């Protein structure tokens, strides 16, 4: 996390503590003047208000501008929003990925309800109190836009009279040989089920077993190590079996069997093995029994960075992908995700086979735990980017309603995404539904059913052909 984000996090916690102290002092003073039952009532009301409107983890200001730099020469033009219709000032440039840059300003109601912009049959939500530059994803609506029929309306926010339309042209990467890198079982489905389920030639490589945080399995009478071992086996099975739902055969799925949250440590000491934090295991070979490809780490089973990079190099040369789908190392802060892409880049450098393109995804964010904001099935606006990112092109393919349902069912098969939410989260959602108008999908209780099942998937495109 950057120094700026650390400062904002500290300020957020400090302000929360100061507000709590001031509120408690006010309640204590009022307690001398009011009936005894008023004090607990005020405390309950304050807690309900917090859960409804102040429980989001937002580590930037809602009036911060998003900062995106696109590659030099990216086609863009001014557009008009007057009359509630998006109008072009010139002929629409060729390209399937359309990003609309706007200055949004919240209304008073947008401080209590999530402000959103309706774009044709889509909606894209933003932070309460939004005031600044934002980037809407209107990919898939080029036909209506070109005909002057694309209606745009702000709800709980005010739209400007003018905006900027960015147009990016890409090949259909699903028609090329694709390798999806998943740090954990479920990352491939969360980020790229729509892509891989229609790819002609695709391989899926899962780097870790996903064995940690196995407390739920302790209910089966297992020790901590046994529960972790069982969870690792189940999630390893998920990584091989669930892609079948998207048409990917088992012989094109590979489980490497390394251990959760150990990849960053492995990168720091490449020759040192790092076993599981919870199961006590330190041999990756048991998780590889169903693999159809022989790999370097099969020789000694050591969970080392050197073995990981060698495994990925071998897989590059075996499957010969033209496109590698991998986490975005600047946007996605999860340590295993950052390390996974680092390993991919090292493997490409060492490999005799060279992919030409990285498609990068973000399943987690530093700044905002609700992105993509808004309900399931809506579009994916660009995520918060308060600090400058590399100037990458974007590709945002559409998912039909049928593919969205298949993606939701794939997530429902994941052992780590099953089960009901804990009581506190269910209560918070009920409060937010009643007071803040939020909605959650019926397909699953895990937050990823809302965040990942959308009309778009979103990838940052980076050329690695040199």
TrEMBL record:
A Gene Ontology biological process term: GPI anchor biosynthetic process
Region called Disordered, residue ranges: 271-298
Domain of life per record: Bacteria
Keywords: Membrane, Transmembrane, Transmembrane helix
Keyword set includes Transmembrane: yes
GO cellular component, one term: membrane
GO molecular function: hydrolase activity, acting on carbon-nitrogen (but not peptide) bonds, in linear amides
Segments crossing the lipid bilayer: 20-49
PANTHER family per the UniProt record, alphabetical: BLR3841 PROTEIN, N-ACETYLGLUCOSAMINYL-PHOSPHATIDYLINOSITOL DE-N-ACETYLASE-RELATED
Listed name of the protein: Uncharacterized protein
Organism: Pseudomonas fluorescens
Lineage: Bacteria, Pseudomonadati, Pseudomonadota, Gammaproteobacteria, Pseudomonadales
């Amino acid at each position: 996390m950057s120094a700026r984000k650390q400062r904002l996090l500290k300020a957020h916690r400090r302000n929360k503590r100061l507000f709590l102290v001031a509120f408690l002092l006010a309640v204590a003073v009022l307690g001398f003047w009011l009936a005894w039952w008023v004090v607990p009532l005020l405390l309950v009301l304050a807690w309900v208000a917090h859960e409804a409107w102040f429980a989001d983890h937002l580590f930037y200001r809602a009036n911060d501008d998003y900062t995106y730099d696109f590659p030099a020469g990216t086609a863009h033009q001014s557009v008009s929003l007057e009359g509630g219709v998006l109008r072009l000032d010139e002929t629409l440039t060729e390209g399937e990925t359309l990003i609309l840059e706007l200055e949004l300003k919240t209304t008073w109601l947008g401080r209590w309800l999530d402000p959103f912009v309706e774009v044709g049959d889509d909606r894209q939500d933003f932070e309460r109190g939004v005031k600044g530059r934002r980037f809407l994803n209107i990919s898939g609506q080029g036909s209506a836009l070109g005909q002057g029929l694309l209606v745009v309306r702000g709800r709980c926010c005010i739209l400007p009279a003018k905006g900027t339309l960015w147009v990016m042209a890409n090949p259909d990467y699903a028609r090329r040989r694709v390798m999806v890198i998943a740090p954990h079982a479920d990352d491939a489905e969360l980020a790229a089920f729509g892509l891989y389920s229609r790819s002609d030639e695709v391989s899926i490589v899962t780097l870790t077993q996903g064995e940690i945080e196995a407390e739920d399995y302790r209910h089966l009478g297992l020790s901590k190590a046994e529960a972790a071992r069982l969870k690792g086996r189940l999630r390893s099975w998920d990584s091989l079996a669930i892609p079948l739902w998207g048409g990917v055969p088992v012989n094109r799925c590979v489980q490497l069997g390394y251990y959760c949250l150990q990849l960053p440590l492995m990168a720091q000491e490449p020759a040192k093995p790092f076993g599981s934090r919870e199961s006590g295991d330190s041999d990756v070979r048991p998780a590889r029994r169903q693999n159809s490809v022989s790999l370097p780490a099969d020789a000694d089973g050591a969970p080392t960075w050197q073995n990981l990079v060698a495994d990925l190099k071998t897989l590059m040369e075996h499957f010969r992908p033209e496109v590698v789908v991998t986490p975005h190392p600047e946007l996605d802060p999860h340590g295993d995700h950052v390390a996974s892409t680092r390993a991919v880049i090292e493997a490409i450098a060492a490999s005799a086979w060279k992919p030409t393109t990285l498609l990068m995804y973000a399943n987690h964010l530093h700044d905002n735990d609700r992105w993509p904001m808004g309900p399931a099935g809506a579009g994916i606006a660009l995520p918060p980017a308060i600090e400058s990112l590399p100037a990458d092109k974007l590709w945002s393919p559409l998912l039909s309603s049928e593919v969205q349902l298949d993606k939701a069912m794939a997530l429902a098969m994941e052992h780590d995404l099953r089960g009901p939410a804990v009581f506190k989260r269910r209560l918070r959602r009920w409060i937010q539904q009643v007071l803040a108008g939020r909605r959650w999908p019926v397909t699953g209780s895990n937050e990823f059913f809302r965040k990942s099942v959308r009309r778009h998937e979103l990838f940052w495109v980076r050329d690695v052909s040199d």
